[in-house]
## 1
Amino acid sequence: MSGARFRPDFRLWGLLPAWVIMGFTLILPIGIVVLVAFGTRGAYGGFGWGFSGASFQQILFQKGWTEELEFNPQYLEIIARTLWLAALTTAICAALATPVAYYIACQPPKRRAALVYLVTLPFWVSMIVRVYAWLIILGNDGVIEKSLRAVGLVEDIDSLLFNNTAMLLGMVYSYIPLMILPVFASMEKLDGTLIEASHDLYANRWVTARRVILPLARPGIVAGAVLVFVPCLGAVLEPILLGGGKQMLMGNLIQTQFGGGRNWPFGAAVAVVLMALVMLVLMINALRTRPAGEAAA
Amino acid sequence: MRQDVRRYPGLGLLVLLFFGWLYLPIAVVIGFSFNENRLVSVWTGFSLKWYGAALSNSALVDAVRTSLTVALIATALATLTALMAALVLVRGRDVRARRLSEVVVNLPLLLPEIVVAVAVLILFSQIGLTNGLLKLILAHTAFCIPFAFLPIRARLQGMTPDFEEAAQDLYASPWVVFRRVTLPLILPGVFAGAMLAFVMSMDDFITSNMLASGGNTTLPVYIFGLIKQGTTPELNAISTLIIAASLLLATIALSLTFRGRGKS
């Protein structure tokens, strides 16, 4: 080379490991998933390369006896249930997190730090242990059934498990810290004088909550909504353990397609749909927040 | 006297109920782990026998060993990778494709884990990678990187470059600047990142379950298998041990992070 001294540039090789690892274990495999989704089904699990839309078609239609296509709402229901449960979880988390975060924000600094610590602490406990705990509480002869029977309220109740409500409870429980922390962060700056000003202007508590506190909490709620909604879309443990595997969500639908002898291309197609939904949410969020950020700057 | 307008009636009670709900499941698991009876929810007396059963369960010990091996190696690799990336992305001037690189480093946070899990499963089956431990380490390293990266980046961003520039003015080489100035200052961030990565790896179920093969069962995958067989007091004892370990780790991590913040 033209006499140029070889100087290893840290700006390049410093980023190299991250690119190599992400390239090999994320970008390349995701590309393969998209290809597999368009591939053909292997005889004994696995897949064949090719280009067919059959797997995506299978999400909506099934082949009848005479090879004609019949509309099959089964998988569409799973997708709808996933979206609905994720949205409901997000809404409940927001409704719970806002008053709790407000209460924490109103405390003196030392108590505030202690309460934030208490909110985050369960989050450090293994996810599977937290979901398992709800199994003991809700299960057959579980804590709730036992206590209801002890006070003579009921004789015998159908299991509280294996339904949408149990899944919803588990998901809210799993992800609530992801909502409280950003909402608290946006309310931490909440100035007591603003609330006093609102009262001086003859607003009562509820008007103040709606017109002063809620708008201040809003950026945190939006940030928290993304943090809760996205992992809910891909939830696997809650549908298997609390939903009993009968109330399928997209996460465990994908998972079940990858055992031996199952339909890999179909699983890949559902994975592509899930990924597209997540990307859509993130893109809407990016578009929503960018203009606001620029306006504030 | 005017009452505090910031107070809302009933809010304190709601918050109390909330924290009760947050800790109820953990308390139930811990409580029933000391139950002598074979049936989880029939309390017949205090006993530590399920802890004995758990600790002498060789399959459990194997699962813990696999989890620790994977988590320690993945944490080391992820933290080193994240540290290098953070140094370039925060301190580097005119870095090419800075925004794209930042997205790539945080990619595991943007994709549903189940999708990434099936993706690496297909990749590993295509390239014929059969070493179970290696598969787990590779996959865990990838999803641990953003968790290590974010605290390190936050620490670097919150730190003035004055000290590093002063060292450079005194003819310290880039390596000496890093080792003697930058690293000691960002160490709490590096530690917090490594801790988060470690916890995420130890906790992971979705990816590990997808890649699970005989002899390479991680702790959460092993516990999942036990849960599917039904709730037992031994499972409660194992869960309690995990809760104790997680809370200990969380407390150490948080106190070290706060101490580091106090110093600077």
## 2
Amino acid sequence: MSAVSVHARVEARGLDAALDVAPGTVVALVGPNGAGKSSVLQLVGGQLQPDGGTVSVDGAVVSGPRVHVPVHRRNIAVLEQRPLLFEHLTIAENAAFGLRARGVRAAEALARAQRELDAVGCGELAGARAWEVSGGQAQRIAIARALATDPRLVLLDEPLAALDVSVAPAIRSLLRRRIRGEGRTALLVTHDAVDALTLADELAVMEAGRVLAAGPVADLLARPRTPFVADLVGVNLLAGTATGPDAIRLATGDRVVGVPADALGGGAAIASFAPASVAVHTAEPSGSPRNHLRVTVTGIEPRGSLVRLTGELSDGSRVSADLTLAASVDEGLVPGREVWLVVKAAQVALYPR
Amino acid sequence: MTLTTSARLGDGLPRWLFVPAALATLFLTVPLLGIAARVPWAEVPALLSTPSSVDALALSLLTCVVATLIALAIGLPLALVLARSDGRLAGVVRTLVTIPMVLPPVVSGLALLITFGRRGVLGAPLSVLGIEVGFSTVAVVMAQVFVAMPFLVTAVEGALRSSGSGFEGAAASLGASPSYTLRRVTLPLLAPSIASGSALTFARALGEFGATITFAGSLQGVTRTLPLEIYLLRELDTDAALALALVLIVVAALTVAVTGWFSRRTVRRRVP
């Protein structure tokens, strides 16, 4: 039985999503803006009603034809970018809020709240007010407040997006410990590959209101099949047609030779390679290496000690290459310039599509 | 937000702007100073304790408190509903209920008289049942609620709209029912705007003149509130009128101070 099962349509948002989550699994929903990730969360949380189909939690329909369990009866915790602590209550009263709303006596609720605050490292803030704590502390307290209700499911909508980069790693590891580490079922919306890799067991890739692919994080990231996942992982993805056991032909006519990760068959296939394995040449390379692509430079941007060059093939598909700053200056690499990108066949992974 | 340490004065503005600005300040303050200069300060206690003054003060206090309570009882729910509604119907209702705020009070009084007066649309059937509202203390309260309640509605609705529904959403996901959320989250967070909206409503009700005199008349101890008494006395007994006016000025100043304090308090709490 699935802990969460979404098979629902929301016409106004162009959403038609199918997703099943096994108990104790954390699923990261990834995809471009507007893909419908947050809508899926709202369908599960009850903030959004489907036009058709059903949403089930623990085998019971919570939204469907003539059924809509209201948000407050679903026992599903929500954590979003904003911690939304209640300003008129103390931190302890905030953490006890869910229990008090369920009719638990004040003393008992506050005792549980204190334990939850201790567990997120904010125990000493119990008497403070919401406007007296920092952004990172507020998000920790929001986590304590949500988990104090013993939710059967946790929905995380970019919980780290509004945090300072110096604070986010600590909150990420707190979430990892309290959500994934304690075997809770959760849905996570994120734009960050690190979040997906560290917090989730499975990945569901969404685009244009549909779930395109779902599966274990490692599988999907090792073989990214959509440009979005490729961007998420940071590898180059080129789509083409298999012309042999170890080669594909791109729409531009270029041939890309690589190592098949799966038997290619004869149909659509994808080549994937890391920007770091791409070399840049300003003249057509002699000795005809097996993979060389002629591109127009469209962007040069610093990435730490390196520079990432982005080039466009004649059909508009993009390839990135990482090189040293010195090399990019010496070679006079500026947008608009034509260059050849060379990548060794051994560095290219080929997947059937 | 922290207040700037050195007070600014017209920062970055052309200097000539100070001339019309000073003119506006003088125009709005000199008449009040004029009253202060003319008030027979030593006789104020005696002037305020004449039977007609005491009647007017007591009637105004009673009716304004009742009018403010009625506005809270029915205007606050209206503000909550409007703030959480969109669409044409909500827009139409919002427009209709704010009209009395900008309507000339005498027109409001006439509308109430035509509707609730002895031969009015609703007044006639009520009259058959033996209920007469026109020219009674009830009419005074009705006139005050009619002109003053929109101030509470707009103040609270505006505050609720700008604060968004995030806190209510968070409360619901924590398991709080809509009633529990209203009681423990929405209303406490709105307390500052409810307080300042109530103060504005009370002040507007206290100053009500046109609608009251049109709909309720001017009967000592029954419908003759402070503004009506002041109008009556302005030539007969100017000193008494000035003493009563002083009361209204003090209440007005208190209202401004209270609403200002609450709005500063809100700002301080929102921005750490």
## 3
Amino acid sequence: MRSSLRFASIVGAFALSTVAITPAMAAAPVSQAGANAVYLAVAGNGQGTGTVTATNDGSGEKKNNVGTAPTVVGALGNNPVLKAGVAAQDATAGVADGAGNSAACAGLAGEDGSVVKIGSGNCLKPGKALTLSLANLDLSNTTLIQPGTALDPLTSQLPALPVGQTLGTVTAAIEDAIAGTPLGEIGLSGNFGALQARCTASPGTAQGTANLANTSGDDQHTPITLSLPGGTSVILAKIPVNPAPNTKVVTGLDTVTQDIVNALKTQFNDALDGVAAPLDTVVDAIQDQLVTNLVAQLQPALQPLEQQVLDITLNKQTHPTPDSIKVNALDLQLLPAAQAAVGSSLVNLQIGNVACGPSGRVASSAAVAAPEAPAALPTSVSAGYAAMPGQHAGQGDDSSNAIVLGAFALLMAGAAGFISFRRLHR
Amino acid sequence: MNESVWDARIATWMSSLLVLCGVLAVAGLVLPSPAVEAAPTPGYQAMAAPAKPVRLVVPALKIRAPILPIEVTPQAVLDPPRNPRDVGWWQRSARPGATKGQTVLTGHTVHTGGGVMDRLGKLRKGQLVRVVTPKGTMTYSTTRVVTWSKAELARRAVSIFAQTRPTNRLVLITCSGWTGKDYTSNVVVFAKPLGVREKTAAA
């Protein structure tokens, strides 16, 4: 008898433990979100503000990397692309009525911009103009030019030439030249008050938006300017403050293609003239071939320019699953054609990057355990007032009546006195 | 613990169960069954279908007040309508005319006067309470008037508010026990349904 009870107790305890542990072991996030203010990669070498992530499996929100990157300067150091500004990135993951929900917001504002609490609205208030500029981008450390790609024709011929030993010098010179080419001097600028993306997700759905507040005084559009060597500048596009999902900034790019090609030739020749002078006439041929080949390599890449040189997408949205979303307020890729050479765009800049979802529901056992039952049945009836609404306690009907009667008595006494006074003075 | 002790205990339990069965059997013979209690009262007929209450009439207390649906708060508090002259019907409770459950109405008591249920505690057994609905006026007969402390009411919450009763009854609740600062108790009136007055009887 006793041994049977012990056995039953052990089995019961095991069963209870299993029931208690199983949900914890099976607990998967029912809501999740992530936010990153800025990501900048030059030739595939990325740096950014880190990513704030939030997850919730029904037992509470868990967040990572909270408080990273208060400013752009702090996050990106001496980057040449973005100057001082305020970065915001926050994500939240919650559960309401057993359903997971998440939200995220991230972006940049100019100096004096401020970060506001994440919610359904924006997370940044605009400050001074936030200038996006690639004008001084230093390409000297990139590997855009590699012997195996643009210089292939040259490397295959140089060993047969007497100047083979100068290969290293020339290659270095070309790299230096590239560093000073129009590619390095292309300027892209736009003055933003704030540039941010946000998203929300709940079971079965996920939405995202991007907002590009401007400082130009025009409430509807923000101009994006491309500047070329010599001070030429072209307004590429006037982008809407609230761009539609996956808006491409392409307007006018094809008009500057030839300008860039011409500038490239000039820059290459000027740069090589000095370095290659000691090599006399042999170098001229190499130089011509080099420039021709280099431009030939680049030129197809510049046609069409918007696809190969500068690719900007605003409010870039992707849905990894139907109930999740990723939003980039601005996704900029400079020279995507460099993909073949360096494995990535020369420059990839992403501002305001958020992801929300997918979302699920807390296991039904937890939902059943929600404290709904106690509220279903009243346990108290609060049906008493001290006095009628608008009337103070202690000034009930009795006291009110007394005041009225007193006032009436005073009025009557006054009237009687007045009548008596009149009679006495007749 | 040896087996003789167990045998003694089991015998005690069995005896108790037998006594309990006997008590229940006697009670079943003596007390009226729910079916008997729910039988139509002469002069009254069952309501065609349950309907939402719209007006409370208590002739003995000169109460004539509109009824508005109310809901329990997340804190499990049942608050009457804000206007102390209105009566609240807990909309999760039974509709007048239902054969089961409890129809719960509550109204304010105002210490300085003017509350719709200021004098609810004065109601006496047998006095009538009428609840007007779009489908007829249900008449109830007062069966019990009690005053319970707030804590006692909370303890009795299931018996007062639960909708599992096999027969319907009306429950009227207001506050009492004014201390000069707040109310410490509730007056609760229970009434059994008589039905809708037959037209011939009404005429």
